[in-house]
Amino acid sequence: YSSPSSSVQSELRITTIKQEPYTISKGTQLEGFCMDLLSEVAKKLGFKYRVQLVKDGSYGRQDDNGNWNGMIGEVVRGEADLAIAPLTLTAAREKAVGMTKPFMQTGISILLRKDISEGSGFFDFLTPFTAETWVGILIAYLGTAASIFIVARISPCEWSQPQSEQNRFSFLHSLWYTAGALTLQGAGPHPKALSGRVICCSWWFFTVVLLACYFSNLSSSKSSESAQLMVKGFEDLANQDTIEYGCLAGSSTLAFFKNSNNPVYRRIYEHMERTKSFVSSMDEGVRRAKEGNFAFIGESVSLDLAVARHCELVRAHEVVGMRGYSIAAAFGSPLIKNLSVAILQLSEAGELAYLRSKWWASSCIADRTKSSPVQLHSLKGMFLVLSLGLGLGALLAVLELTSKSRRGAVEQRKSCCTVLTEELSLRLRTSNASRPQENVDKDKEKA
């Protein structure tokens, strides 16, 4: 591009407007995204500048007589050489002044409070735990039921006479008993043997901690869902009448909806005109969105800033009407080409992205309105305690049976291993044990 000395004056008059975070006051100085951008561009093009705030506090709108106000008007009248601010690149402005390549892309989106931006699903009650955690809980449940079933058969304290007595813990009853403990309801009869009680205590401890984690996470994930309305985009907004919505009066956002042929956008515009739900400033739109029952329609980068500053707000994912923010100069000015090249160089070097992250940094420490699902590794201590309990219960059952086998071996004058093998074989293959308890009651009645 042409050398700076041939196309740039010694000191340029820059007009801007106060808007966070583009231009903000700090003492007697101005700072912000646009001020940093201006400094970088001035370094590349080698010019000095003097910044002044626009006199009428407007961006630039054309009246019925064709006259421009705001920053655009000052550039048109020669009161300023450049206007650097979040000036939207539009056809009308391009006809009146020269506009550079956009230094930032934006669009139109929706700002809502978090409690009306997300709806509930049918299976939201499963969200406190991840899928892996639910699988782990199912395996723990089946493993505990199987352990109770096996220990109740092995332990002589639980089942003293396999030949004549009915085992109270069939596999189905073991499943029912374990499920009852999981829901804190209980399902008798309870184990009599120490081995079975150790397993049950381990399972009870596991379920108490598990339920505490579940309800704690469920309550925190549901606390923000005071309204069940789902608003993900403009079509959802147009198809409901529960919450009010509006945009900045006289803005390019309003012009977009007014001039659109899209039926959804036309309905939104007609609704705003009918209800006169316009706001006079960005701050008012953010305030009404924070109060609830109001969706503020505005430019996405401005809404992103509001989300970064106010943790209870969220921006809808849908962005329409993409446009850019540009620097304005006098029509036909030789500055336009050089400024556009400088902006492209800053973009390619990652400087614009850095400035965006610097001035749009979120002040939200943590999002406490919705907690993340509990991961399986977070509950590894619970599963370890349960596993130790199951293992200890099984060991105690074997010791109980071994003790009885040793006494039987002395009485029968057989080796302990032989008696133990016979006991295990009898207890694990006796068909009587698999009959439900009701059959035993019927047999007693018949007798």
Automatic annotation (TrEMBL):
The keyword Disulfide bond applies. Residues 21-77 form the Ionotropic glutamate receptor L-glutamate and glycine-binding domain. InterPro entries: Glu/Gly-bd, Iono_Glu_rcpt_met, Ionotropic_Glu_rcpt, Iontro_rcpt_C. The chain crosses the membrane at residues 133-151, 171-188, 194-215, 325-346, 381-399. It is found in: Postsynaptic cell membrane. GO terms for molecular function: ligand-gated monoatomic ion channel activity; signaling receptor activity. The record marks V231 as: Crucial to convey clamshell closure to channel opening. It is a multi-pass membrane protein. Receptor for glutamate that functions as a ligand-gated ion channel in the central nervous system and plays an important role in excitatory synaptic transmission. L-glutamate acts as an excitatory neurotransmitter at many synapses in the central nervous system. This is Glutamate receptor. It comes from Seriola lalandi dorsalis.
